[in-house]
Structure formats: structure tokens, C-alpha cells
Amino acid sequence: MLPTPNRRYRTVRRSADLFRSFLVEQSDPERFYTDLAQDTITLITRHEPLDGRLVLDIGAGSEQFGREFTARGANYVAVDLERESFPVGSAAVGVVGRGEQIPVADGSVDIVMANNLMEHVLEPGVVGEEMLRVVRPGGLVFISYTAWASPWGGHETSPWHWLGGNYAAKRYERKHGHPPKNVFGESMHATTVSGGLRWARRQSDAWLIEAAPRYHPDWADGVLSVPGLREVLTWNLMMVLRRT
User: Which CATH architecture has domain 12-147+191-243?
Assistant: First the structure.
């Protein structure tokens, strides 16, 4: 489990702990997704408390998020295409829906988040606009996604995706005897750091209050200001926006 964070949270130790947790994603998903959920909670609560807040999780994906968020006093609602992704055994709620058409009224939630979703949708900007639509004025939007040019951009086909998504998928199928779970051009797309930052900065009804390479120590934030290099080194872009 991740250590209790101090005031300066994004440290080298935290990065190392997350990396060790990532290495057991397949063998010990309980540990990995619990650590990821707790990390997400800490990143969000630096800007907004959870107690009593209505939190909408787009593309929920794992039950650990529902369990951890409700334990912190949030009213957690998961939105996902698959019912199997909904939290079980907790006070969390699940709703079937798409990020491009979130089945929630305008300005009805306090916090809306999308963890590692944007690389799996064709138009991440459309999902972002929907997230801004459903959050109340003054509410928080939390977005985190893996950049395509990063070492893990091709997910299970990495690092061969650097030679092309289609090539990486075919190589994976030859090696494993079945296609990858994340199919390039269908369920996985080439997201960029520059595209995400550009989208966030041009919103007229929200301001970008934090942008960072999520899993890096805070002293590595400067990489976001270097075009080209940021696409590879950022790895996972985190953006936090406040709705006006």
C-alpha cells in the first residue's frame, strides 16, 4: 500500500511505490487498483474534499475505486459500458453509459473523473466536453491518460507501438496466438500530451489549475513545457480543471 502522503506528495518514493505496484497489475490487481484509487483520491483532495461530494467516474473499470471513494465519504457513481465493471459490495452506484454521452443532467455532480480512459476513445475532446457539462459550477474535473508516444503507450503491445500500432498488434498476435485486448484504431488510439493541454487551455467555462506528468516526482513537471520530448517522457498526463 502507498504510504500516508505528506504535504509534498509527488515524491520519488511515491513514484517508486507506484511503479512497483504497476509491475503486479496482472498478478495482483487488488493491490494495483487499490493503490491507484488511493493515489487518485490524494491527487483530487489536494483541490477538493470528498466527504459528501457526488463523484462521477467515467469508464470506471475496477471496483476498488468505488470501495475506496465511498470509504472516504464520497457518493460514488461509476459510468461504464459494461456492468461487470461496476463496484460491488459497497455503497457505490453503477450506470451504463458512454463518455461521449454521459447519462447525467447538466451541472449535477461535484467531481467528475476519467482515469486512463482518453486513450480508449476516438474523440477524447468530446468526452472532456461532456465531463464539463455534467459538473457543477465550481466543481472539479480530473483527467489522467497514457500518451501514445510514451513507453507504455501501446499498453500490452509496448514498446513495439513505436513502430506503428498495426505492426505492434500483429506482432502481439503472432507471439501470443490471439489479438491484444486493446486493438489499435478500435479500442486504443494515439493520444498526445500536446492535444490534451491544448484542449484544456482553450476551455472558456473552466480553467486548468494543475497539469503534470502524473507518476513523476513534482520536480519533473518542467517536461510538459518541452514539445516533442513531453510526448515520450510524460508517460501519463494528469489535468485538473475547475468549472467556472
Answer: 3-Layer(aba) Sandwich (3.40)
